[in-house]
Amino acid sequence: MIFALYRVMKEEKYAPRRAILPMLQAEEDERFVKEWKKYLKEEARIMKDVPGWKVGESVYKLGKWMPPATGVSS
C-alpha cells in the first residue's frame, strides 16, 4: 500500500517535467543555433587571412560528431 502511494506521488512530481521537456529542449536548440551562428561569424572574421581555413570545419578528424558543451548548466 505504502509503495503504491509513493509511486503515485513520484508520478505526480515527474509528469509535468516530462510534459514540458520538449518545449525546453526546443528553446535550448534555438539558443544554441543563434550562438553557433555568432561563433561562425566571429571565426570567419578572425581567420579571414589564414590561407586554406574553412569556417566551421572541425580541426579534428575523429569521424564522430559530438555536440559541443554549451557551458550552461540546467
Element layout with pairings:
Layout: H1 2-46
Question: Any overview of this molecule?
Answer:
The chain has 74 residues and is mainly alpha-helical. Helix content is 61%, strand content 0%. The protein contains 1 helix and no strands. It has one helix at 2-46. It is elongated, with a radius of gyration of 21 Å. The model has no long low-confidence stretch (mean pLDDT 86). It comes from Anisodus acutangulus. This is NADH dehydrogenase [ubiquinone] 1 alpha subcomplex subunit 13. Complex I functions in the transfer of electrons from NADH to the respiratory chain. Accessory subunit of the mitochondrial membrane respiratory chain NADH dehydrogenase (Complex I), that is believed not to be involved in catalysis. Its main location: mitochondrion. It is a single-pass membrane protein.
Output the keywords.
74 residues, mainly alpha
In short:
61% of the residues lie in helices and 0% in strands.
Helix tally equals 1
* C-alpha Rg (nearest Å): 21 Å
N- and C-termini, Cα separation: 35 Å
* Number of separate strands: 0
What proportion strand? under 5%
List the uncertain runs: none
- Strand pairing plus helix content: what structural class? mainly alpha
Provide the residue-averaged pLDDT: 86
Order of H and E elements: H
Give helix % range.
Answer: 55-70%
Could you give a short account of the major beta sheet?
Answer: none
Outline type: elongated
